[in-house]
Write a structure and sequence with these properties.
This is MYND-type domain-containing protein. The protein has 952 residues and is an alpha/beta fold. The chain has four domains: 214 residues, Rossmann fold (3-Layer(aba) Sandwich); 109 residues, no CATH class; 159 residues, Alpha Horseshoe (Serine Threonine Protein Phosphatase 5, Tetratricopeptide repeat); 213 residues, no CATH class. The chain contains 43 helices and 15 strands. The protein has a nine-stranded mixed β-sheet. The longest helix is centred in the C-terminal third of the chain and has 27 residues.
Length: 952
């Protein structure tokens, strides 16, 4: 039977379209059903017959190009596309039943007719949207006769609960279908050009199909009535049916599909126990749910991969026949040889993706690995090096680059192995040492243009950077990734940090507006894994990330995800919510790593990190959810680590003021109390929070008392207010280059420049490199904190000194005030203080790293101290990345008798002068000099020599 002839169970229509090979016909179902429009295309002796069942509306002309593409790619294939009763405007009958049950019965009759007339052919069901549910009903009715089932954009579980189902289900409630169908009479006079304008993105032939539907009240009523049945009948997923026929089923999920929504996760979770049992594809080319409108060719290619007679050996042979890749291909107009090579590699890759990634013995996978070096790798490296990073200006060039973007992640994932173990990935790396850097550079291009394939690239990059069981080799892989990114960043060709921040912002904005596709949540999680590896504080890329606004971006991400509206449609057990939790956890981990200086802590507080934390109630509650058991750390623990980093830098006035202000606001707003009422309580976080608040309160008291009594903070040696309190309203000025020293007037600033300019460059460099040391004001506050803690705990200090072995030998003992540890004890606890002798002090690795600590202490060793005088060293945190981990403050603390406080605390005049230099730049209690406070306190110097020079 030729393709122009129809089988006996069909009645040809008088009109035939000469532009395609399909015969327009009628399937004459008997009463109470009615006639259904069909398309038929066959060969003389078909080995396979596809019964295609469309979505709703079931207008087959929508699918003509898709079906033609499918037919052209598979030999010995016949296709019967069966519409729904009364959906075709030219074939409507008033008496015919057209509910969902009737449509299933009609599909079963069509299947039986095929088997009766083509008994030797294998029948494959392909359904789209609601057609997938109908296909499964046919499978249920004829389980032994169906060869395979392909479900494209499946709506097979709780369609009413999908985003579109929730938005549109009211339209399908009676009597609205009847009322809406009557409105079609009003559309008949509407000119065709109006509809074409409204649907300008649609091809003209599709607009013509739409116009026919809009002018048929009967067809509109049938479509809406069937949709009502869909909302009522499609409930729980038939897991038993899928399990029984798992080896026959292939599922294709669109990248973005609001007719599927969270139900995709329901389907996927049904096969977690046996992930290799069912073939699942996730939107290879960004094909939408309504693929039949604008993406027929791509969908057709994906749909036929499993059915065609694919031979990996023939593919490798064809690839070898193409010869070696050209060294300088034409980017704008890729030649036939280039296109053929990509088609061959793409066919191999997507054939495997469609079948089963877990099947390591599949002949295609075996062939790819066997011929990787000699046949495939040279072409893959060419595509990555020349096409993936290019910026073509022609349509053919852009289309070819798109194809490269879609193909490369698939082929690399398969070559690396289904389980991505360190052995498999490292073996690939040893075979193709250039492959991974090329892939990373191509990934940057994908991000720079926000290509639709970015989730696939993020998945592969994260798997390569975070290889499982990698050990030291895994660390090397991560380092290679960071090195490649750093070299690109330093070359000036790409601002990698800004690029990644922009990508995060785009995804955050999409999540905020609830436009982030379900599949993109997993992509977002994978992308965050790579960002954590790239911008962690242990890498050289952390500072560019901070400079480009990375901390504010991460806080914005947290604030968006804790907003109720962002994740409202995702349940705790869904795949999307699990990925959202992953994004949230990774963002917290990255933020905790980046809080490496007083500048970073201040920026995070300004961005609203504390408010975001206290709104994360749903994330705190998720800690006790059964789906949360796989997490290494709970939300409460991760947030506790972030707060500990903020706690560490509270000794800086800039951080202290911000934290104290926000904590008061949280308390007054009631948000803080709401979190305390949660059950179960986020104990780890709340304990850390209360401890940090107590520390902030104590530091605030110390700071307030001290700023009321301190003299001028002007750095000019000959300042007229050097030894006195400056006039009220004095506004301090910072050095704009290093943001370290302050002057009480322009006059003092000009006069003091001569002594400051020598070290100004060093201070400025440290500031720009993200490792600012304490500024002039910070150091004096450190000194006051050291004094106060020694005075408050003097009795315990004396006790520890008496118990120290060196005290009996008359050695000078040193009191260490340890404030550099995020896990430090309570601020009021004597355990913050430790007593050591000079040898122990010199062995302290923190002191060895600092140039001045040991010499500054040594000058006091063996010298007599006044009664109740203590040699103390305050150990304060400093920005990570510098030479030293801490900033030591060496001071002689005189502990006054009770009710006997005197300013003459030191036996050494130099120490006395140093103390008098401290004051706060803000004379007004609540920040009269807000300009100087906000602009300057965040930064400062690294070296202490300049402080001594000014003080002297």
């Amino acid at each position: 039977m030729s393709s122009s002839e129809t089988p006996p169970f069909l009645q040809p229509l008088g009109f035939q379209n000469s532009q395609n090979s399909f015969v327009q016909a009628i399937f004459p179902h008997e009463y109470p059903l009615g006639p259904a429009h069909v398309l038929w295309s066959s060969s003389d002796l078909p080995k396979f017959i596809v019964l295609f069942i469309p979505g709703n509306p079931g207008l087959l002309d929508f699918y003509l190009l898709f079906l033609s593409e499918l037919k052209s790619r598979v030999k010995d294939l016949a296709i019967l596309a069966h519409s729904y009763i009364n959906h075709t405007p030219e074939l409507t009958t008033v008496t015919a039943e057209h509910g969902l049950t009737a449509q299933v019965q009609a599909a079963v009759e069509a299947f039986d007719a095929i088997k009766q007339n083509y008994s030797s052919a294998k029948v494959i069901l392909i359904g789209h949207s609601i057609g997938t549910w109908v296909s499964l009903e046919v499978l249920k009715a004829r389980p032994n006769d169906v060869y395979a089932v392909h479900l494209i954009c499946p709506t097979i579980s709780h369609i009413a609960k999908t985003p579109n189902g929730r938005r549109l289900s009211w339209l399908f409630q009676r009597p609205l279908p009847l009322f809406i169908s009557k409105l079609s009479y009003l559309l008949r006079p509407l000119p065709a050009v109006v509809i074409s304008t409204l649907f300008r993105a649609w091809p003209e032939n599709q607009v013509t199909v739409l116009r026919r539907l809009l002018r048929s009240p009967t067809s509109i009523f049938a479509c809406l009535s069937m949709a009502h049945d869909e909302m009522q009948m499609i409930r729980d997923l038939d897991v038993a049916l899928l399990e029984q026929h798992k080896h026959k089923i292939c599922i294709y999920f669109a990248e973005t599909d609001d007719w599927v929504g969270e139900q995709r996760g329901v389907v996927l979770r049904s096969f977690k126990a046996d992930p290799g049992s069912i073939r699942i594809v996730h939107g290879k080319s960004g094909v939408p749910h309504a693929f039949c409108i604008t993406a027929m060719e791509r969908a057709g290619h994906a749909a036929n991969q499993h059915n065609k007679n694919f031979s990996p050996n023939d593919a490798i042979k064809s690839l070898r026949n193409l010869g070696k890749p050209p060294p300088n291909p034409d980017i704008e107009q890729p030649g036939p040889r280039i296109k053929s090579a990509l088609d061959i590699i793409g066919d191999m890759a997507f054939d495997l993706v469609f079948v089963c990634r877990q099947d390591t013995t599949h002949p295609t996978l075996v062939s790819i690995r066997k011929n990787w070096l000699t046949g495939i790798a040279p072409w893959v490296e060419l595509f990555l090096a020349k096409f993936a990073v290019a910026d073509p200006s022609t349509a053919p060039g852009l289309e070819f680059r798109d194809a490269v973007f879609h193909t490369m992640p698939a082929i690399l994932t398969l070559v690396a192995g289904p389980r991505n173990t360190s052995e498999e990935i490292l073996k690939l790396r040893s075979k193709s040492p250039l492959l991974f850097p090329l892939f990373y550079k191509a990934w940057v291009k994908v991000l720079s243009i926000t290509h639709v394939s970015w989730p696939s690239w993020a998945s592969v990059v994260s798997e390569m950077v975070f290889i499982r069981g990698g050990g030291d080799d895994g660390v090397l892989m991560a380092e290679e990734f960071v090195k490649t990114m750093r070299e690109m960043h330093q070359s000036g060709k790409e601002n990698i940090a800004a690029l990644c921040i922009r990508h995060i912002n785009l995804l955050v904005q999409a999540a905020h507006s609830r436009q982030l596709a379900d599949r993109d949540y997993k992509g977002f999680e994978n992308a965050m894994k790579t960002f954590v590896s790239l911008f962690h504080t242990s890498t050289s890329m952390s500072q560019p990330f901070i400079v480009n606004g990375g901390i504010t971006t991460i806080v914005k991400l947290l604030a968006t995800f804790v907003a109720t509206r962002t994740l409202r449609r995702h349940t705790e057990g869904s795949e999307e919510f699990s990925s959202a939790i992953g994004v949230f956890d990774l963002a917290l981990a990255l933020l905790q790593s980046l809080l490496k200086s007083q500048v970073s802590a201040s920026e995070a507080l300004d961005a609203g990190v504390l408010k975001a934390i206290f709104k994360a109630k749903r994330f705190f509650l998720y800690d006790s959810h059964p789906a949360s058991t796989h997490r290494i750390k709970s939300t409460s623990s991760l947030i506790s680590l972030v707060v500990k980093q903020l706690d560490l830098f509270l000794v800086f006035p800039s951080v202290l003021r911000r934290f104290y202000r926000v904590s008061i606001s949280l308390s007054e707003s009631g948000i803080e109390d709401e979190l305390g009422w949660l059950q179960p309580r986020p104990q780890a976080f709340l304990a850390t929070w209360e401890k940090t608040k107590r520390k902030a309160k104590e530091l605030r008291t110390i700071f307030h008392d001290f700023e009321m009594a301190c003299p001028s903070m002007c750095a000019h040696i000959q300042c007229p207010f050097r030894d006195s309190v400056p006039p009220p309203g004095t506004r301090y000025l910072r050095c704009s280059s290093c943001m370290n020293v302050m002057y009480c007037s322009h006059k003092c600033g000009k006069a003091g420049w001569a002594s400051h300019k020598i070290l100004c460059g060093l201070f400025g460099k440290a500031l720009r490199e993200g490792r600012p040391g304490p500024c002039w004001q910070d150091i004096h506050f450190f000194r006051e904190i050291t004094n106060q803690l020694v005075i408050r705990n003097y009795e315990e200090v004396v006790r520890k000194m008496e118990m120290h072995p060196s005290s009996k030998q008359g050695q000078t003992l040193i009191v260490l005030v340890n404030l550099d540890d995020p896990d430090q004890p309570e601020f009021t606890s004597p355990n913050l203080l430790a007593v050591v002798d000079f040898k122990q002090f010199c062995r302290d690795s923190r002191m060895k790293e600092h140039d001045d600590a040991i010499p500054d202490v040594k000058q006091y060793i063996g010298r007599p101290l006044r009664e109740r005088a203590v040699l103390a060293v305050g150990v304060f945190p400093v920005s990570k990345g510098g030479k030293s981990r801490v900033w030591p403050i060496v001071d002689i603390v005189h502990v006054p008798e009770e009710d006997d406080y005197t300013e003459d605390e030191y036996t050494d005049e130099e120490d006395d002068g140093s103390e008098e230099d401290y004051t706060d730049e803000d004379e007004d209690e609540e920040g009269e000099d807000s300009e100087q406070w906000e602009s300057g306190e965040d930064d400062g110097s690294q070296k202490g020599e300049h402080i001594k020079e000014v003080a002297s």
